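User: I'm writing a tutorial on reading structure tokens. Could you give me a worked example: one chain, its sequence, then its tokens, then a sentence or two explaining what the tokens reveal?
Assistant: Sure. Here is the example chain.
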Amino acid sequence: MPLFKRNPFGHILWIKKWLIRILGLISHGRYRRFNELQIEGSDVIRNLPEQNVLFISNHQTYFADVFAMFHVFNAALKGRDDNIKNVGYLWNPKLNIYYIAAGETMRSGLLPRIFAYTGSVSIERTWRSAGKNVNRQVKMSDISNIGKALNDGWVITFPQGTTTPFKPIRRGTAHIIKTYKPVVVPIVIDGFRRSFDKKGLMIKKRNVLQSMVIKEPLEIDYENESIESIVERIEYAIEQHQSFLKVLTPEQLKAQEEFIESRSFWGVDHKKKKE
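And here are its predicted structure tokens:
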């Protein structure tokens, strides 16, 4: 019998818990004092199942986005409504929250390696390595590890694979959705790029309004929906489709809303679905 309880990746849970507590305490002021984080959708978090949930989000910094989600998710689970007041919600954090990150990023120094212990599912990017474009095969062990994380709990992914806005959605995310059939929850963030440096470690500007909108889960036909359709729906759900780049006329806005509604882009009422 093991001396310490571990997660499926071999991480000792009491070490992970203390790292989340310490890093959470250090980072809390970045979303409450130096800048203000505006939150929508805490009730969505409280109505999710314990396992097999995939969060899809746009990406603005390497680490600040994920830290904010750890705060928001745990605060919501402890009954906070769209706020992260009183960091005591991290005393007993949810320990089966994971996030997909590039292996080279998480191996780039001592601090990233510490961050990785809090829940990183490190993968080798197929399109970029060491600052250069590459084209290599997907490692099946990476896919397997994502499935292992989903089987254990919640997984955060940034399907564009970059902090540059309006880049294409990587098809791998759609393949993961079709393979593991998770509950897919879109998140849209803003303000992190203005308030932090690219890594999300240094405060670049104060008094910036940051925002995080957690949307209802998407309704997906896992068996029959095509990869292309899922990719397109992700683009709209995390507001990274090219149509968001331009100012739309009222007629175009109405047409877009009708199109999104007809395809059930924003999903269903998860509470009704469970009933």
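What the tokens reveal: Residues 13-274 form a domain with the Glycerol-3-phosphate (1)-acyltransferase fold (CATH 3.40.1130). The CA atoms of residues 104 and 131 lie 10 Å apart.
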